[in-house]
Amino acid sequence: MDQSVHLKDEKLRIFHTLESIKKWLNISPKNKYVLCDGSGFDFSSLVAEHFPNANIECLSFNNDPALIKIHGKGFGEGEIIRYALGHSETLHESQWFAKCTAKLWVDNFLGCTEKWDGRFLCQAFFSNAFSLKKSRLEYIDTRFYLVEKQFYQKYFLNAHIDIGGGSGISIEDKFLDIARGAQLEGFIFSTPPVVCGVGGGSGKYYKNSSIRRIKERLRSWIVSHHSKFQSLFYRP
Length: 236
Description:
- The chain has 236 residues and is of the alpha+beta class.
- Helix content is 38%, strand content 18%.
- It has helices at residues 10-27, 44-50, 65-71, 73-87, 89-92, 109-113, 149-155, 171-181, 210-224; strands at 33-37, 56-60, 96-100, 104-106, 120-127, 136-148, 195-197.
- The strands form three sheets. The protein has a three-stranded antiparallel beta sheet. A two-stranded parallel ribbon has the order 1-2.
- Helix 3 (65-71) crosses helix 4 (73-87).
- The N and C termini lie far apart (39 Å).
- 29% of the residues are buried.
- The mean pLDDT is 91.
């Protein structure tokens, strides 16, 4: 529903969504998955055809295009999660869930979830990590995170309301504001998730070279050892 993205072709979007499901099943085949589409496309038959033995629940509904035009894709993202929480049998029975934007997967997912028993865990972006300037926590990366269901419903369920438009606030900004307001500690991955796949905004595969991965880990290590930010990082 967001016309600002580059990846608009329906066939390509379907292809890359199925590609990500295949990757997820290779990473963690025993997981229960919920695929929720906000454009009214029902993946049920395609999922049954391509992944007959997988535990995948497919949901679909139509996001409001007028509201997404005003508030941006972050609004659509929030509505998709709200719909899934309200209609998914899998999520109804679950205590926590991992959210990942469609067409993406996380290569080190099992490492990210290992020993985690908290409320919320995400990746965040810090500016000036490799500079003499003061580092700043700029925003939370909402492409992938782990969250306790009740915690999400209490703090993030309405995070997408009133973003974009004249406010200029993104869903990433809003998540950070909420985390600060709740005085969260230990909510940032110490080891960065390796997010792979195709970004809907760019329509291109993410570049995840070994050099880039090392750089991200180094950035995380530098910031996590800064006295100002130490308490924000999760320590298993």
